[in-house]
Amino acid sequence: MRYLPKSPVDREEMLAEIGVASIDDLFSTIPAEFQLKRDLKIPRQHGESEILDRFREFAENNAVGYSSFLGAGVYRHYRPVIIDSLVQRGEFLTSYTPYQPEISQGTLQAMFEFQTMICELTGMEIANASMYDGSTGAAEAIMMAVRVTGRDGAVIARTVHPEYREVIATYAQHQEIPTVEVGYSSNGRVDLAALDAAITKDTACVLIQSPNFFGTIDDVAAIAEIAHAKGALLIVSIAEAVSLGIVRPPAEADIVSLEAQSYGVAVGYGGPYCGVIACKEKFLRQMPGRLIGETKDKDGKRGFVLTLSTREQHIRREKATSNICTNQALVAMMTTIFLSVYGKQGMKELAEQNLAKAAYLESVLRATAGAKVLFDGAPRFHEFVLELPKSADETNAALLGDKIIGGLPLAKWYPELGPNATLWCATELTTRKQMDAVAAALAGKKA
């Protein structure tokens, strides 16, 4: 039974046992002004048509009709309508862990294809069937490197997403993993000299992000050479997965942590998203999460099963590589459908569109009087840092009057860049009209 009622006599006996006269006495420590001693102000019942009207009113308070130039780890890309049509099928929507492969072949095959596509995109040899998101994936990758190397330290680039670094700090604190951050050079890439100096005999791994938080693409090969020369693993975090359509995959890395939100997952007010860890096959048994393997049944037919799963739901807690207790199978399914729809050539064309849109946005904003693009001299994907003539907060407040959501202020995480530095993003959904409009607004003109 989901609900076991207690009789008045039962309640009196319970209160007597704990030594109070009434239920109200249980709340006596709460100040009187905070106690609710009246009926709740609940509106009358509504008909279905009234409820729909009420939610339409709520929707009108949202940012309808605004153009947005925000990115910073969450990206607006077109979602083919087929995604929701398929993931909302009961076979996928209600499935959980496919412990019984004989009745879960569809789910298992879809997850296997997900792993295969991730390997093709990242240049890695093996991938798991998803993590919570990009931030926890990066933290789990560091823990994985500690297990692989037997060392206990991590060197992290400051150009890794600041919120990823906050999540990593929480993990590292309780895993007793000391971390060191290294800065960036004038072109926005990792400072290689500082990185080389920071790696010691106790360093298990180096974590970078490429494209990094400033939108700059790092020299993964050079960083890998520095890390490997001192016995450390290289972890590459990728927050913008669409970049892999045109940016060379980080094949020199040992572990890749990917946020797959850009592959058909809605912005959705911050989640749920889909993290992934991919790596060299020799590190397979230290990979967290779940893994789908291909096998053959008794008749020799192709089949799929859960295999080598090292999460604590599957094996003894002391043997588990992670305390992750689920994955993002349904969100990973969205990714699988997205990649299947676009295909290899489509992903390349999509990335080229993003690259071109950002190049145009940069060109029109660079022409604004007093504006300056920071970190020139290194390749970028679809984000860049712009220093404005006025503070970022003041500028964004003014842009809102023109129904424009401007770039992300960076002073909170990078105070050395000053209050005028902002991070701007353009994707395939950003129109030329919107970009011309924001340039005109910054110049004090009407588009």
From TrEMBL:
Record-linked Pfam families: GDC-P
Q: Name the Gene3D superfamilies on file.
A: Aspartate Aminotransferase, domain 1, Type I PLP-dependent aspartate aminotransferase-like (Major domain)
Signal peptide residue numbers? none
**Reaction(s) the record says it catalyses:** N(6)-[(R)-lipoyl]-L-lysyl-[glycine-cleavage complex H protein] + glycine + H(+) = N(6)-[(R)-S(8)-aminomethyldihydrolipoyl]-L-lysyl-[glycine-cleavage complex H protein] + CO2
- Kindly give the InterPro entries that the UniProt entry links to this protein: GcvPA (IPR023010), GDC-P_N (IPR049315), GDC_P (IPR020581), PyrdxlP-dep_Trfase (IPR015424), PyrdxlP-dep_Trfase_major (IPR015421), PyrdxlP-dep_Trfase_small (IPR015422)
A single Gene Ontology molecular function, please?
Answer: glycine dehydrogenase (decarboxylating) activity
* Keyword Oxidoreductase found: yes
Provide the E.C. number(s) assigned to this enzyme: 1.4.4.2
Domain named Glycine cleavage system P-protein N-terminal: residues: 1-440
Q: Which UniProt keywords apply?
A: Oxidoreductase
Enzyme class, UniProt record, top EC level: oxidoreductase
Keyword GTP-binding, does the record have it? no
A Gene Ontology BP annotation from the UniProt entry:
glycine decarboxylation via glycine cleavage system
Role description: The glycine cleavage system catalyzes the degradation of glycine. The P protein binds the alpha-amino group of glycine through its pyridoxal phosphate cofactor; CO(2) is released and the remaining methylamine moiety is then transferred to the lipoamide cofactor of the H protein.
This protein's assembly is summarised as: The glycine cleavage system is composed of four proteins: P, T, L and H. In this organism, the P 'protein' is a heterodimer of two subunits.
Q: Output the PANTHER family linked to this UniProt entry.
A: GLYCINE CLEAVAGE SYSTEM P-PROTEIN (PTHR42806), GLYCINE DEHYDROGENASE (DECARBOXYLATING) (PTHR42806:SF1)
Q: Which family does it belong to?
A: Belongs to the GcvP family. N-terminal subunit subfamily.
Q: What is this protein called?
A: Probable glycine dehydrogenase (decarboxylating) subunit 1
Instruction: Identify the species of origin.
Output: Tunturiibacter empetritectus
